Amino acid sequence: MNAYDLVVVGGGPAGVAGALTAAQAGLRVALLDSGARLGGQYFRHLPASFHASREGMLHHGLDRFVRQSGTLERLADLRLGHQVWAVTRQEELLAVHAVMTSDGPHGHPVELPVVLRTRALLIATGAHDRPLPFPGWDLPGVLTAGGAQALLKGNLVAAGRRVVVAGTGPFLLPVAAGLARSGTRVAEVLEANGGLGLAGHPWLALSKAGEAAGYAATLLRHRVPYRTRHAVVAAHGERELTHVSVARIDRDWRIRATRTVECDTLAVGYGFVPQIDLATQLGCDTGHDLDGSPIVTVDASQSTSVPGVYAAGEPTGVGGAVLSELEGRIAGLAIAAELGTPPAGEPPAVPGLLLRRRTRLRAFARALQQAYPVQDGWQSWLADDTLVCRCEEVTLGAIREAQRLGATDARSIKLLARPGMGWCQGRMCGHAVACLAGQAPQPPRRPLAQPITLGALERISDDKPN
Amino acid sequence: MADVIVVGAGVVGAACAYYAARAGLDVTVLDRGPVAGGTTGAGEGNILVSDKEPGPELDLAVLSNKLWRELADGVDFEFEAKGGLVVAETPAVLEQLTALAVKQGVEHTLAGDLAAYEPHLAQGLAGGVFYPQDAQVQPMLAAARLIRAAQDRYGHQKVRLRTGVTVTGFLRSGGRVTGVRTSEGDLLAAAVVNAAGTWGGEVARLAGVHLPVLPRRGFILVTEPLRTPLVRHKVYTAAYVTNVASDNEGLETSAVVEGTPSGTVLIGASRERVGFDRTISLPVLQRLAAQAVALFPVLRDVRAIRTYCGFRPYCPDHLPVIGADPRMPGLYHACGHEGAGIGLAPATGHLLAQLLSGQSPSLDLGAFRPDRFPAEAHS
Ligand SMILES: Cc1cc2nc3c(=O)[nH]c(=O)nc-3n(C[C@H](O)[C@H](O)[C@H](O)COP(=O)(O)OP(=O)(O)OC[C@H]3O[C@@H](n4cnc5c(N)ncnc54)[C@H](O)[C@@H]3O)c2cc1C
Hints:
The complex is a heterodimer.
Chain A: E1 4-9, H1 13-24, E2 29-33, H2 40-44, H3 49-52, H4 56-75, E3 77-80, E4 83-90, E5 93-103, E6 109-123, E7 127-129, E8 142-144, H5 145-153, E9 162-167, H6 172-181, E10 185-191, H7 202-209, H8 212-221, E11 226-228, E12 230-236, E13 243-249, E14 255-262, E15 265-269, E16 272-274, H9 277-281, E17 286-288, E18 294-296, E19 309-311, H10 320-338, H11 352-371, E20 387-389, E21 394-395, H12 396-404, H13 410-417, H14 430-436, E22 452-453, H15 454-457
Parallel strand pairs in A: 1-2, 1-6, 2-3, 6-19, 8-15, 9-10, 9-15, 10-11
Antiparallel strand pairs in A: 4-5, 5-6, 7-16, 12-13, 13-14, 17-18, 20-21
Helix pairs in contact in A: 1-4, 1-10, 5-6, 6-8, 7-8, 10-11, 12-13
Chain B: E1 2-7, H1 11-22, E2 27-31, E3 46-47, H2 56-72, E4 84-88, H3 91-104, E5 109-111, H4 114-117, E6 127-131, E7 135-136, H5 139-154, E8 159-163, E9 167-173, E10 176-182, E11 185-194, H6 200-206, E12 214-223, E13 234-237, H7 239-244, E14 252-259, E15 265-271, H8 282-295, E16 303-314, E17 321-324, E18 331-335, H9 341-356
Parallel strand pairs in B: 1-2, 1-11, 2-8, 4-13, 11-18
Antiparallel strand pairs in B: 3-7, 4-6, 5-6, 9-10, 10-11, 12-15, 12-16, 13-14, 14-15, 17-18
């Protein structure tokens, strides 16, 4: 069969909007996502309670997303449960390599390789949580903020548990509100940044996105204290979490005073790291977000430096669901225009209105990042025996020893001490290790963007062109 | 002023520094990057005698094997004396393997019962030869800790490591090399050792001499860490031996499979001459996976979690360059070790240190002479 016009990787707001826009313009589109359903980080993990309680824009956004997904299912080739592990160039086309799990001959699941060939690619792979290491963060009961969302979704956080939510950024609020509503006792919400600008007004920051009032009311109703310039600097417990050390911190995040708070669950989040592995595989130009995260550089039409390759949503800079959807839509229009099928009812090029909205939303995203930076003082929370890389159990002491041996950057620290060599390939510790090396995080070099069984890898060229 | 400047903090440079310091010399190691950030950071860490044809390289490998064992007694770089198992698919190949082993004259046993060595090895192989001397190190740690050990044993004043210093030229006086020009200023030394690995040709050119060192790309696949080890030794097929010595420009792969102390399985090793191109090659990865699964069918359900490539420094005759450069007094070379630089590093450092301190080397370095190549063709 012929190649697709467009393959979209990622089924969150950016990917769905991009795929839908392009499909409505008549392009032959496929969308791949590793999840079992669409939604990405943002929508997939929303608890069912959100459907019931109407909470402003967020719910509104969800409704819209569900509608879009429904239409997309009819207009495009939706491939869920597909993990994309590599993209390569094949003459004029791009080859998108994925694996999917299916039942083998004896009901034993086997991983099968799938290759889709396409004229254009939209990278809408979102972002993942960014934890920071601190003593005890590997204890059972310590979750990332995104992980806590996911648990809520599965109603796995039992009522009666006692949770502390800590980190930085407005995302802590929906997490805390969701937990409180589900019957969990939220002991405190701790925001590491301070009382100036947007950070002093998280309600305002969110109200821009129209989500604030509901969370504020929820937290108030449940009497959850929200404290700025506070952080969890250590987690304690024999076999699982029993209490945390909460510190009052200064502007650089150095500890001023600590006290103990009992809890059995801790949700921590210090922002997000854009997932740009596929873009770096293809050699797309990258830059740095305000917070230092490597991001894909795109032009006005969301096109990367590599012809035919577009990116939308968090990979171009963390900015939230609304901006992601808009960028996806702009990319869809631009790709349709580029591939020569003028979309029905819309002018071929991208309307100026959308571009102006994007400019406004990006400015807001930048302001948020400025208001919720990660300050270097977190490094002073660590002891020599604190794990920095959990997969490979690498301590701060081992990293310092590698530096004394002559490792001068994150890569050589990894070669000598192994942080980032394990299962998650540095997604969890990469940012921290770069900071400890005194470096801005470098663009990821992950020729395998996802693990793949050797059995699937040995068969990648068996797959007939779609 | 140092007695010796070593250019390159890879495993070869580290070994040169270690043995020069042991010989009482004052050493400065320079690298434009971090320690072990070059090809050493991409190597598998095999220390092999099994894959060498009889001749000067095998002699070097046997000496180096002995030195690695000495070094491992006191310096921790995850040395594992695990032994290597070379397997043959057919009786004819097995016969060749056995004949080679006899000619090599190194310790070996015929592995009749392959399953006793490797319980998960595929059925139907004709047999193999086991080489107990084959071993493995973690190459990056080996380089870094050798320099550290030299400092601890012979004095931090006598052994200096300077990272982030690029050599940009040579200082010369009266037809001799007297030091190097670097991004951080000029440095004087009685002797300069070119241990710049794959970039050894470039460094030689800075000194005005020709050395044909070129890159030969290799990919390695790394699996998820396994809870119970599936592969005990280093295992490879006979085809590996012919590939190593091959002059083919195109892609060659032959599975080399081995477990590591961290629980992962390393699968090497491809060889192709494509310049310094880092673009991922899926056909290469596919072949490595297929060959590994053919040797160890249990690996089929094991996941590869990463892959990386590096550029072996090779010379047209596949032998390293070790010794004083007669064309440029004061300049020494220790580079071009291709796919065996980790294995051959201690012997290289040891022999070079003998030269540097005016002794005659305990092994004839004739085959490794820097001026053995035809002069560069000028166009
Ligand atoms: C995939 C693969 C697998 C391998 N497996 C094995 C194996 O199992 N066993 C084995 O023995 N070998 C193996 N090798 C080969 C081995 O890695 C190399 O032979 C060895 O690492 C070379 O070491 P080196 O110190 O000479 O070079 P390098 O480690 O490359 O060191 C050279 C250093 O010189 C520095 N440098 C260069 N130019 C300058 C300059 N102008 N100024 C300052 N510094 C400079 C570089 O930054 C670099 O750090 C493998 C290689 C590859 C690619």
